């Protein structure tokens, strides 16, 4: 689901609010995305895996950190691709997510740690690849997270992220975003400003300026915009939406209001499955030790 854009990131109180919202949600819900095709071919997790598995310049298998690993789905895919399990690490700040990942992976060789993104339990220059799937915006304050990523990456290490993209006008994704943000703003205006985290993450220009200012990370090429192609009827789509944390902010009447509005979006499909494109972006940054920082 695409978020509105904004120039400024959350302040200190907003950071705490965002973390609390995400924490409360993930104590109960996994929150993973469906493994469905995208307009770039593989599903969104495999797009990150394709970058993470790239060998280092020495030819050795990379040491990989899945930051915000959730229930370990991406780590499981890396295992299935044949990456050495002792090279795989997962970090999440919600203990319940780490427990889900341990249950999924069932392998002591994979290092799973409950920790904050602003204080990573890894030595400087010890990780070759860091991947983040749809959670960087909530790793606040963002500047501190980026500095930690920069610290633990090796020279020529890579950061690959998937974040929200700009939904095409008239798509169900775009229309649903308008509905949910309107209802959240009506019911909890103080929370609506912080519900999606730091919106600069979804703006390649703003994110590049941040990395220039605070890190030695350089954007590789152009961001790749793509869509995740859900195919659902109204009932399945509502079930999918009920598993995301904005929904949990609403009262019963607010949820009913959203349900009715979503049902109207599907009237033209007579309860048949509709293709629902979810707009996303893939960005890859590479660390260069001698990269000049902006003044």
Automatic annotation (TrEMBL):
The keyword Methyltransferase is assigned to this record: yes
Signal sequence segment: none
GO biological process: methylation
One Pfam family matching this protein: Methyltransf_11
SUPFAM superfamilies per record: S-adenosyl-L-methionine-dependent methyltransferases (SSF53335)
A Gene Ontology molecular function term of the record: methyltransferase activity
UniProt keyword list: Methyltransferase, Transferase
Segments forming domain Methyltransferase type: 65-161
Domain of life: Bacteria
UniProt keyword Hydrolase, yes or no: no
PANTHER family per the UniProt record, alphabetical: METHYLTRANSFERASE (PTHR43464), SLR1071 PROTEIN (PTHR43464:SF92)
Protein name (database record): Class I SAM-dependent methyltransferase
Organism expressing this protein natively: Ruegeria aquimaris
